[in-house]
Specification:
The complex is a heterotrimer.
Chain A: E1 3-14, E2 17-28, E3 32-36, H1 43-51, E4 58-63, E5 66-67, E6 78-81, H2 93-103, H3 108-121, H4 137-149, E7 155-159, H5 167-184, E8 187-192, H6 195-201, E9 204-209, E10 212-217, H7 219-224, H8 229-234, E11 239-245, E12 249-251, E13 257-259, E14 269-274, E15 280-282, E16 292-304, E17 307-314, E18 319-326, E19 340-345, E20 350-354, H9 358-364
Parallel strand pairs in A: 3-8, 3-9, 6-7, 7-8
Antiparallel strand pairs in A: 1-2, 1-4, 4-5, 9-10, 11-12, 11-14, 12-13, 14-20, 15-19, 16-17, 16-19, 17-18
Chain B: H1 6-33, H2 49-55, H3 58-90, H4 96-107, H5 110-123, H6 130-154, H7 159-166, H8 171-200, H9 203-208, H10 218-228, H11 232-255
Helix pairs in contact in B: 1-11, 2-11, 3-6, 3-8, 3-10, 4-6, 6-8, 7-8, 8-11
Chain C: H1 3-32, E1 36-37, E2 43-44, H2 50-55, H3 58-90, H4 94-105, H5 112-123, H6 128-135, H7 149-174, H8 177-185, H9 190-201, H10 203-218, H11 222-226, H12 235-244, H13 249-279
Antiparallel strand pairs in C: 1-2
Helix pairs in contact in C: 3-7, 3-10, 5-7, 7-10, 8-9, 10-13, 12-13
The chains are: A alpha+beta, B mainly alpha, C mainly alpha.
Chain lengths: 365, 262, 281
């Protein structure tokens, strides 16, 4: 697949605050791409650079190989769906959607047909005459979507498209957005702070932090092979054990070695990270000597349908650990609070990550 | 029905008296204006003769016309300047001195503004007339229009301007197609308030009108009539003026109602 | 279009107008106050502070003090009358609040002369109130209700009461009703809850309302002229006289500046008060 958007070393400062710090990314044709990160990470600024509402201090942005920054915002083949939807309150649904076409001097029957097509695409037929304040939140979202799609942009930018919807509707709209993206064959770039949303919808994700692109990859790559503590912590739930990188794993302060894979310099501070669902709880130390095993005390148990969430204190690592175990597992039937058990997992399920800054330690505590 | 506590009842009684205090005197004028005898002492029957008497008075026609000329001109200029000012202020960091400058014409005693403008016009050796009243009225009207439009802009979602540009409109096109229609209720309400203030304004007009009936406004005429004494014609004039002012303000309130969110 | 040009185009015309017809005229008055009255009512451009010395002469200073006193009484009356009304409106059902408030504000938007005239009709010797009193047999001779300080205070309260109610309403309506309920829940009677919770939390609005009533009251000249009958002069009438009767513009300018000075002092006092409140929570 060929690249639609290429960003090289894009930086943007607001006063002394650095919003974007030399960001480089490539977004491919027909991709559903998510810019993910906590608030203030620069993801929205990046989107606004693409739309033309912010001009970067440094760096290049190209669209189909042409310099995008040289094009005025109202001439870019890029449309945006705003977080507030930004529907024109004085225009009805039809005129909101037709607005962009009118700016392109589309007239008469073509205007009519294309507007109606866009409305049909988001299942809003019959609501043409309504004003925005006569629509529900979900309907307004669809108008905003139709309005941004009607001009058939090369790239559609979506700023927190689902943030204003309630939880149930959000799930439906995730599916709907994916379906639409396949149907229209336009590159979607979505900004979100919700990792679940990004994982469900996106083909690829750029996880941003403090204006930098922390890791870019498919949802699976980010989940299974996080490159840093930040990524591992942001995507899904993760247990961390602090120690020092040894020859075949991470050595805890007590000397116990936890085995795993990953990059970290020898004898440097490191994390061993393992997902809660990879942990196995056992009454006795497992026979399989390769597996990591730590003694733990059950602190709390909560039931959530398919699995039990078990919180355990691991004295040896001075850590609280979360394990998600299958309710059908016969091993867990008799777990009680206060009980001492063994918490085990295979080395292949754990990642070794560098433990650099003090702030990471703080975040984990 | 739920029992109302005695404190609440006392509060209601007090409020009722205050509303009576506010509307009683006005109501008396309106009733007397239809009294055949024209006297407050005795009701001799319903009559519109005092209104008929106004219809033939040439000085009243002249004064009303002058007031309309002043109010329409001052409102037109002030609405444009005040709206632009409000839009400009929206783009600035809040600055105390600008807020102060806007606030001054609204709060400064009218006699002070009146003598200041008179001194200024005299210094310039400007001939006084309707135009000098218009210039003066624009000063406080700008402030009122800007305040009303700014209040409207506070609820204005700035992303609709970006949305319009994103969809291909130019900056100027966006102003005419999006910004102006959306803030229009605020602009119209501000203009109606400016117009109402202008047709009722007396002190500044009195000082900056110059001599002669050619620039006598309607409030100036009312003032000279009141100083002369209580007459039935004033009651009729008062009733008309009250009716016009209240109608204009109620219309402006209705237009500028915040849009209800669903 | 660069942002600076855009701002200049938007702000330029309005600010220019305010500078030309507000700032420059005020500066003119400031300049005049240091000049002298000419022989034929003109202005002699001799710089001196004679006018300021004259302003503290008991004859004029007494009028300033009287104006301050009347404006203070008007403010106090408006606060006592207005606070309960603002409280009632702010605690009324939501759908009634705006109509009730509009009813308070509406008279302000009509002609001030006519509203003042209404009180002449009510209070004069042949007026409605005297007639009613005589008909009831309470008095034999008509009372002199008009042309005194009481009539003046009534007229000013009538004119500016809306200015008191509006900021108080806005402030009380913003208060979380649960705060009042918490006070009641903790055992305060509703009157005690009012004094210990509502009033302290609306202090800023009380200050704002008092300024809004005090400033136009002290500068007023229509009401003393029409309801005080020229017997009760306030500083506004004095300024009027200097400009249109005595034709001593420099002295009139001085008096106007003193009036502005009083007003500014009050506004600064209020700003200081608000700042202090914010700093101390």
């Amino acid at each position: 697949m060929s690249a639609v958007i290429e960003m090289q070393g894009v930086s943007k400062r607001f006063g002394t605050a650095i919003a974007l710090d030399a960001v480089s990314l490539t977004i491919r044709e027909n991709e559903f791409y998510a810019l993910l990160g906590p608030s203030g990470c620069g993801k929205t600024t990046l989107l606004r650079v693409l739309a033309g509402f912010e001009t970067p201090d440094e760096g290049d942005v190209s669209l189909d190989g042409k310099d995008l920054l040289a094009i005025r915002p109202n001439r870019r083949p890029v449309n945006m769906m705003f977080q507030s939807y930004a529907l024109f309150p004085h225009l009805n649904v039809f005129n909101n959607v037709a607005y962009g076409l009118r700016m392109d001097r589309v007239r008469g029957s073509e205007l009519e047909a294309r507007t109606r097509d866009a409305l049909a695409m988001v299942q809003l037929d019959g609501l043409e005459g309504r004003r925005p304040n006569q629509l529900s939140g979900g309907q307004r979202q669809r108008v905003a979507l139709a309005r941004a799609l009607v001009k058939r942009p090369r790239v559609l930018l979506l700023d927190e498209p689902l943030a204003a919807l309630d939880k149930k509707l959000r799930g439906q709209m995730q599916m709907e957005l994916k379906r639409l993206q396949h149907a229209v064959g336009i590159t979607f770039i979505v900004v979100t702070h919700d990792q679940g949303e990004a994982m469900e919808m996106a083909d690829r994700i750029a996880l941003m932090r403090d204006g930098r692109n922390e890791q870019e990859g498919t949802p699976e790559e980010l989940y299974e092979r996080p490159a840093s503590h930040f990524v591992a912590d942001f995507i899904g739930d993760m247990n961390f054990f602090a120690g020092t990188r040894g020859a075949d794993g991470v050595r805890l302060e007590t000397g116990t070695i936890l085995r795993g894979h990953g990059d970290a310099g020898a004898e440097s501070p490191a994390w061993l990270a393992v997902r809660p669902e990879k942990l196995v709880i056992a009454q006795a130390r497992p026979a399989h000597a390769e597996d990591n095993a730590l003694e733990a005390e059950v602190v709390d148990i909560s039931y959530s349908g398919q699995h039990l969430s078990v919180r355990l204190r691991v004295p040896e690592a001075d850590a609280l650990v979360l394990a998600k175990v299958d309710t059908a597992d016969p091993n867990v039937a008799e777990i009680e609070r206060g009980q001492t058990l063994w918490c085990c997992w295979p080395p292949s399920a754990s990642r070794i990550l560098p433990r650099e800054s003090y702030s990471e330690v703080r975040e984990n505590e | 029905m739920a029992k109302v506590r005695p404190e609440r009842q006392a509060l209601r009684a007090h409020a009722a008296l205050v509303y009576l205090f506010l509307y009683g005197p006005i109501a008396v004028l309106v009733v007397l204006s239809f009294n055949e005898s024209g006297l407050p002492t005795a009701w001799t029957g319903f009559s519109t003769r005092w209104y008929a008497a106004l219809a033939g008075a040439a000085d009243i026609h002249r004064a009303v016309l002058n007031t309309l000329i002043v109010a329409v001109s001052a409102t037109a200029v002030a609405t444009i300047l005040g709206t632009l000012l409000a839009l400009g202020l929206e783009r600035l960091k809040p600055r105390a001195w600008i807020d102060g400058l806007m606030f001054v014409p609204m709060i400064v005693p009218d006699i002070v503004l009146a003598i200041a403008l008179l001194s200024f016009y005299t210094l310039l050796e400007m001939t006084l007339g309707l135009h000098s009243i218009i210039f003066s009225h624009i000063v406080f009207n700008i402030a009122f229009v800007a305040v009303v439009v700014r209040a409207r802009l506070r609820n204005f979602d700035k992303s609709i301007v970006e949305a319009s540009i994103d969809l291909g409109a130019s900056e100027v096109g966006t102003f005419w197609r999006i910004t102006l229609p959306v803030i229009a209720p605020g602009v119209i309400a501000g203009a109606l308030i400016a117009f109402t203030l202008s047709i009722d304004e007396f002190v500044i007009a009195f000082f900056t009108a110059g001599a002669g009936p050619s620039s006598t406004t309607f409030p100036m005429l009312i003032y000279s009539m009141i100083r002369f004494g209580v007459t039935p014609e004033i009651n009729a004039i008062a009733t008309i003026v009250l009716f016009v002012s209240f109608t204009l303000i109620l219309i402006s309130q209705r237009i500028n109602r915040p849009v209800a969110n669903p | 279009m660069p942002e600076s040009l855009r701002r200049a185009l938007l702000l330029g015309p309005g600010l220019t107008w305010l500078a030309l017809f507000l700032v420059v005229p005020t500066a003119t008055v400031l300049l005049y106050s240091f000049f002298e009255r000419g022989t034929y009512g003109g202005i002699d451009t001799i710089l001196n502070i004679e006018n300021y010395v004259r302003a503290v002469d008991p004859l004029y200073f007494g009028i300033l003090l009287k104006s301050l006193r009347i404006a203070a009484v008007v403010t106090a009356v408006a606060l006592v009358i207005g606070y309960p009304v603002a409280y009632l409106i702010a605690t009324a059902p939501k759908r009634l609040q705006i109509p009730l408030l509009l009813l308070v504000m509406l008279p302000f938007w009509s002609n001030y002369l006519i509203r003042t005239y209404a009180w002449i009709v009510l209070l004069n010797r042949e007026g409605l109130i005297n007639n009613a009193l005589r008909w009831l047999g309470l008095v034999d001779e008509p009372l002199s209700l008009l042309y005194n300080d009481t009539a003046l205070v009534i007229g000013l309260v009538y004119g500016y009461l809306p200015f008191m109610v509006l900021p108080l309403y806005a402030s009380i309506a913003r208060l979380n009703p649960e705060i009042r309920e918490a006070a009641t829940d903790l055992g305060a009677s509703s009157l005690r809850g009012f004094w210990t919770v509502t009033v302290p939390l609306t202090r800023q609005a009380i200050a704002a309302g008092c300024i809004f009533v005090f400033v136009p009251s002290i500068g007023n000249f229509i009401t003393p002229d029409l309801l005080g009958g020229g017997r009760t002069k306030m500083i506004g009438n004095l300024i009027y006289d200097q400009f249109l009767k005595a034709r001593d513009w420099p002295f009139g300018s001085t008096l106007a500046l003193i009036l502005i000075g009083v007003m500014m002092a009050l506004l600064f006092l209020q700003a200081w008060f608000v700042n202090r409140q914010m700093r101390h929570g």
